[in-house]
């Protein structure tokens, strides 16, 4: 009979595969850690740039004040045009009514057409 094979003992090929997988896992872990560090740094730089662009000289209060002024201007313009339209309709109707009364009165004074 031949020598019995100890099936409980790992083969050299299996050990080599485990070593390769472990090395790949360590490399992947290192890359992920580097990526997380770089991404955090890139995000911080992007946020800093956005803040600098949105708030010149870091003036958050001035930026907000500009928005409030712009909103108030738009609201005032809206109110002005709303009031203007209302007044135009009122005076337009009054003008039409006045013209109609005048036209009817002059026609009444002239009498029936012959």
Entry summary:
The protein is an all-alpha fold and 114 residues long. Helix content is 82%, strand content 0%.
Features:
single chain, 114 residues, 2 helices, 0% strand
Encode the helix/strand succession as letters.
HH
In whole angstroms, the N-to-C terminal distance is 144 Å
The proportion of residues forming helix, as a percent range, comes to over 70%
In terms of DSSP E residues, the strand content is under 5%
Rg, Cα atoms, Å: 43 Å
Largest sheet: none
The coarse overall form would be elongated
Low-pLDDT residue intervals, each spanning 5 or more residues:
none
Tally the helices.
Answer: 2
Mean residue pLDDT: 89
β-strand number:
0
Q: Determine the structural class based on helices, strands and strand pairing.
A: mainly alpha
Q: What this model shows, in words?
A:
The chain has two helices and no strands. It has 114 residues and is mainly alpha-helical. The N and C termini lie far apart (144 Å). The mean pLDDT is 89.
Topology:
Elements: H1 12-54, H2 60-110
């Amino acid at each position: 009979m031949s020598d019995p094979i100890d099936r409980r003992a790992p083969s050299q090929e299996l050990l080599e595969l485990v070593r390769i997988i472990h090395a790949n896992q360590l490399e992947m872990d290192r890359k992920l850690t580097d990526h997380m560090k770089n991404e955090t740094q890139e995000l911080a730089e992007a946020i800093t740039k956005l803040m600098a662009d949105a708030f010149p000289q870091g003036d958050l209060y001035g930026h907000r004040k500009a928005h409030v002024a712009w909103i108030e201007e738009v609201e005032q313009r809206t109110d002005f045009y709303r009031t203007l339209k209302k007044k135009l309709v009122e005076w337009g109707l009054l003008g039409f009514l006045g013209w109609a009364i005048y036209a009817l009165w002059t026609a009444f004074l002239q009498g029936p057409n012959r």
